[in-house]
Amino acid sequence: SSRFSDKKERLMHLKTKQREFQKHVLKAMEGKEITDQLRWKIMSCKMRIEQLKQTICKENDEMTRHAEGLLRIKEENQKHYRRAQRHQEKKEKIQRHNRKLGDLVEKKTYDLKTQYEHLANLRRTHILELTSVIFPIEEVKTSMRDPADVSSESDNAMTSSTVSKLAEARRTTYLSGRWVCDDHNGDTSISITGPWITLPNNGDYSAYYNWVEEKKTTQGPDMEHNNPAYTISAALCYATQLVNTLSLILDVNLPKKLCNRQFCGENLSRHRFTRAVKKLNANILHLCFSQHVNLDLLHPLHTLRNLMYLVSPDTENLGRSGPFEISADLEDSMEFVDPSATGETDESGDEHVSDEETDLGTDWENLPSPRFCDIPSQQVEMLQSQSTQVSQPIASSSAGGMISSAAASVTSWLKAYTGHR
């Protein structure tokens, strides 16, 4: 057995070697740890580099798409710019065209206005010449005595208030639903073509049909020579001729058909005479409306006075053309021309309307019908069908009249067409 000291020394020696070995191991481990750390860092950097590469590729793809989109937008912008330039050129061209048209319209409007003024002056000259040479219209003072004065002299018991009321009643007229004062009621008359042919200014033509009714019961030379009916009918006949002539000169369509010979033929009954006077007054008012005559001067009962205002040289718009307004109040007042004659008929009981009141005859010009391409075949078929219907027996007289009138109209149409050919 060895000694304790040897064993202790050997232990110390082993411990020393152990410590040295541990130092060598620690040194070796430090190098490996550093290597592992470097490897880890390298791996991390590689992963980051890979991620960056992927990000760069992705961003490059995005940039490529954006570049392509930007290129498309630039191309579209260029197209829009070129289109905008074309539109701007078109706009400028249209503006130049509109300016030319505006200048042309302004020139044409001025020319039209000038022509209208020239036409109005010509119409005015012709109308003034017509009314000064052929149809002069003048106001004639009458020597009629006031009925109030006559009543005052015949009846001394009548008070002054009653006389004044009668005078006031004589100077009032029912107009537009109310009684209005009429200063020109019976003091004056209006003459046409001469001082011997006059009409009562108040529109009271009862002397005509009173004379007609009196003539039926009384016969004699005095009834033919000394009567107011001839004067009234002559004045109304001249007024009708003047109105129809003015409508042609002014190019105004009259609302009522009234031929020139209406008042100069046979003696008219009260109903027919009143209706003809209403038509004449309506036509005169229509002409006054078309020439913008002052409505305050017009009266639905004053036939020749309205005509006098119409053709007066003081009428500023005489000869004008264009649209105009119609006074409904004055037209509505036409029914009061002779309220007592409303609903009256001839002695036969049933009023017969003659052709003179409805058919203008030769007073209007007949114009040929226009030509159409497809008229011949249709007309021949209609003519054949109408001829077969006419050949058959007709039970009703009204049906026969309708068929014959249709056949006559088709025949006249066919004649007009063949005449054009």
UniProtKB/TrEMBL annotation:
Q: Which GO terms describe its cellular component?
A: autophagosome; extrinsic component of omegasome membrane; extrinsic component of phagophore assembly site membrane; phosphatidylinositol 3-kinase complex, class III
- Biological process, per Gene Ontology: autophagosome assembly; autophagosome membrane docking; cellular response to starvation; mitophagy
Record's InterPro entries?
UV_resistance/autophagy_Atg14
**Which portions of the chain have biased composition (kind: Acidic residues)?**
344-362
Q: Print the keywords alphabetically.
A: Coiled coil
Q: Which residues form a coiled coil?
A: 70-107
> Which residue ranges are recorded for the region named Disordered?
338-368
Top-level taxonomic group = Eukaryota
Which Gene Ontology molecular-function terms are recorded? phosphatidylinositol 3-kinase regulator activity; protein-membrane adaptor activity
Q: What is this protein identified as?
A: Beclin 1-associated autophagy-related key regulator
Source organism per entry reads Aptenodytes forsteri (Emperor penguin)
